[in-house]
Design goal:
It is a single chain. By secondary structure, the chain is of the alpha+beta class. It has one domain: Metal Transport, Frataxin, Chain A, CATH 3.30.920. It has a 5-stranded antiparallel β-sheet with strand order 1-5-4-3-2. Strand 4 and strand 5 form a beta hairpin.
Length: 82
């Protein structure tokens, strides 16, 4: 998976994003899985005090959660580590 192309795709369309793909992207931005509670996967970043909650529903992530991730990436000016 080309992470830059994937990021561009989800910026344009937050629907039908595969859970495993978004996890790989989040890890490239420095997020780590903190805990799992049912279908909720809680991620945190070592440099910022924000947590992100992703739900795996039929192997996809809810679109509003993708939008939340994109806003956090922009707000904190996080860089993609390839």
């Amino acid at each position: 998976m080309n992470k830059r192309k994937f990021l561009q795709r989800i910026i344009l369309n937050q629907n039908n994003v595969k859970f495993n793909d978004i996890v790989i992207l989040m890890e490239s931005f420095g997020f780590l899985l903190d805990r799992i509670n049912g279908s909720h996967h809680i991620f945190k970043h070592l440099d910022i005090s924000v947590i992100i909650n992703l739900q795996k529903v039929r192997d996809e992530v809810k679109p509003y959660q993708v939008r939340q991730l994109l806003k956090i990436i922009e707000k904190y000016n996080l860089k993609l580590n390839l």
